[in-house]
């Protein structure tokens, strides 16, 4: 197994779906002049840093038909967001602000306006690109009336499935990655629907990316299955942790922390399946109902985010959710999840954002958030520890509407624990027990021993990187 890089434990993502957040037109006409909407997000950089985030996962950026996951041109920024120069300047501004850039990467399928697919439409069996796509059959028609059939992404035939075993396709996609690294200085890739992509292709792509840019971070979207199939030595660095995502909200709605405790033990306990990996964790994203809309008790937003920032994984905030934005996933579209934000609200008096801001600040400096051990669980209360070498954190979370006292057995040598959310609260273990008193209703205590302040690691695997001309170690 690969060894966890402690620096990844301090990384926190901010996630923006730019076509939505920037108010881009729904459809791309492919004839209009580029409109620089992406630069509007430059005003968000202080906010992103204020939320404790040092990496940005930016949704689809390249020329597409509608939503960005139907790519028409991998080498040209979507005209609804700007130009290549727009993204280059945006990347430079991010790095100057100490924020790494991870781009959404859609290599499983393309849109019907992708140039190679249009060549097959025009030239049929004579097309040099007919083998670039899966399931091409000139003996039957497509769902769109083409003179040939092809495989789509499941039943979405506006998304044409690429043949990732074709050497020419693989060479082409490698050239795309090389271009993005050189042109936009990206720090990582989030690979859309990686769970259904050819695994040998992913391994080859990972090796290529690391040759091009040592330290590049590779995230695969995986909703279900064994995450070890995608992440680990010779493969990607991480996957999306949908198992933890589901447990995070449903354990609160059902008042059942046993579900979340089981998930965390299964993944990161003493015999955890993934204890040597760090997954991308989230409370919501561009494909899911907003956490503020799915929770039955809005006060549970506070323990949800306390857990997100302290449990194993690399947390991510989806734009707007830090101030309680609502949004329910539709049956066939996700517009409500990806709204325009014309102006950032004044969050000085927003309790949720101020709480998240504090959590981000705590996470950025605690060195103990690595190993995991469950200490106590009940329906509405969960206590676990995180540690690295001599540094220890004990996290106590309370979803109930009442203050809670929890007494746990403590055999460690540490004598003083201070609550990082309330520095006036200090406790000492006595007679082999640690008594955690008055855990706030719908809140938490993050108890830390004397902490070893960490150096700022890059979002890479094992090496230092450079951001804004300064070396990070």
Description of the molecule:
The chain has 473 residues and is of the alpha/beta class. It folds into 3 domains: 6-107 and 167-365, Glycosidases (TIM Barrel), CATH 3.20.20.80; 109-163, Oligo-1,6-glucosidase, Domain 2 (Oligo-1,6-glucosidase, domain 2, Alpha-Beta Complex); 371-448, Sandwich (Immunoglobulin-like). 25% of the residues lie in helices and 22% in strands. It has helices spanning 18-21, 45-50, 84-96, 115-123, 167-184, 199-212, 242-253, 257-268, 291-294, 301-310, 351-365, and strands at residues 13-16, 55-58, 62-64, 71-77, 100-105, 109-111, 152-153, 156-161, 188-191, 217-220, 238-239, 280-282, 314-318, 371-377, 381-388, 391-398, 404-409, 417-419, 426-427, 433-439, 443-448, 465-467, 470-472. It has an 8-stranded parallel sheet. A 6-stranded antiparallel sheet has the order 14-15-16-21-18-19. Strand 15 and strand 16 form a beta hairpin. Helix 5 runs parallel beside helix 6 (199-212). Mean pLDDT is 92; it is low at 455-473.
Mean pLDDT: 92
Number of domains: 3
CATH architecture of the largest domain: Alpha-Beta Barrel
Helix proportion of residues, in percent? 10-25%
**Terminal residue distance:** 24 Å
Biggest sheet strand order reads 11-10-9-5-2-1-13-12
State the name of the first-level CATH class of the largest domain.
Alpha Beta
List keywords for this structure.
alpha/beta, Oligo-1,6-glucosidase, domain 2, Immunoglobulin-like, 3 domains, 8-stranded parallel β-sheet, 6-stranded antiparallel β-sheet, 11 helices, disordered C terminus
